[in-house]
Amino acid sequence: MQEPRYCYRHPDRETGLSCSECGRPICYECMTPAPVGIRCPEHSGKPQGIGKVTAPVQRAATGIGSGRVNAVTLALIAINVAVFAVELASGGSLSGTGNWIFEHGALFASGAYVPGGVGTVPAHVSVPGAQLVGVAQGEWWRLITAAFLHYGPFHLAVNMYSLFFAGTLLEQVIGRWRFALLYLGSGIAGSAGAIWLSPNSVTVGASGAIFGILGALFVLERRRHISTGGQIAGLIVLNLVFTFALSNSISVGGHIGGLIGGVALMWMLLNTRRSPLLSIAATAAVVVISLAITYTKVRGYA
After folding, report:
1. Using one digit for the tens of pLDDT, what is the confidence trace for 14-37?
2. What angle do CA 130, 105, 187 make, to 5 degrees?
3. What single-letter DSSP state applies at residue 276?
4. In whole angstroms, how large is the CA radius of gyration of the chain?
5. Strand pairing of 32-33 and 25-26?
6. Residue 63 clears pLDDT 50, i.e. is over it
7. Residue 157 contacts by C-beta under 8 Å, 6 or more apart in sequence?
8. Nearest CA to 64 among 75, 52, 55?
9. DSSP SS3 for 23
10. What residues form DSSP beta bridges with 113?
């Protein structure tokens, strides 16, 4: 596990950035973009205030000049793409459905599954030879596996594009393993929200976790760890507008649940950043609450 690093000028701020001249860790408020890499105030030749970091935020989001590979973000993207490729290779349709992975990984409270037959249908539909499956039947892994499944190439591409730009920025700021914890916790919180608001709908996609990333970035901006000129808040509002406008095809509960989970978890991670064990405990708390919410909803479906 990588040891957390803190800005040498702001010891309470964990960071993944370093001065390209002296190697000392620096936060976004202290960094100055240079032709090659970034520099601390002592090596930049000028003071760096928080109002000057809007452009560097965009630079960090692309990974240019940071000297740091956003390994977790890239790994998550690779896993999502690989899962979709395996679905296609196993005989699934281009929409990502009609394959074993989708049938056993998609999120829903309860459904009737016919092995080798028509797939999963709502539990109230009478199908000969069907067996009940879903979270209500103890298949709790669907709360996380659904976050790695997508409805077709366009759905996958949009989510991976969002994950790359938002995820790389957050990973730069809070570090790899905390970013992994937040992604996991937000994804499960998003699944809990989807089950709570639409238990009979089949839900897949990484958007719950991505909303969690946006929520985390919003907390960081409010706490003055980054500055984007309000762009993060604007992105959240815009995405929520689309979510409610297209509620027939988008999981409202998944997006809201992920957003709430990301905000709550980022707040806790900031307050436990000195202790890796407390950060892990904070993530566990979000997961436990999400499981409790899900259980409250699905217990009548068993």
Report:
1. 787 888 778 888 876 777 766 556
2. 140
3. H
4. 21
5. unpaired
6. no
7. none
8. 55
9. coil
10. 120, 131
pLDDT in tens, 161-209: 999 999 999 998 898 999 999 999 999 999 999 999 999 889 999 999 9
How open is the CA angle 289-295-296, to the nearest 5 degrees?
90
CB 265 within 8 A of CB 202: no
Q: Domains along the chain? A: 1-68 (no CATH), 71-298 (1.20.1540.10)
Q: Are 185 and 287 in contact (CB under 8 A)?
A: yes
Q: Which of these, 63, 60, 31, lies nearest to 44 by C-alpha position?
A: 31
**pLDDT tens profile 240-266:** 998 999 878 889 999 999 999 999 999
Tell me how far apart the alpha carbons of residues 262 and 66 are, in angstroms, rounded to a whole number: 24
Cβ 44 vs Cβ 95: under 8 Å: no
The rounded distance, in Å, linking the Cα atoms of 112 and 151 is: 20
CB 243 within 8 A of CB 250: yes
Q: Shortest CA distance to 182 belongs to which of 111, 121, 108, 265?
A: 265
Helix axes 152-174, 54-62, angle to 10 degrees: 120
Q: Which residues of 114-146 are buried (b: 16+ CB within 10 A; e: fewer)?
A: eeeeebbbebeeeeeebeebbbbbebbebbbbb
- Show which residues are catalytic: 207, 255
Report the predicted TM-score, pTM, of the whole model to 2 decimal places: 0.77
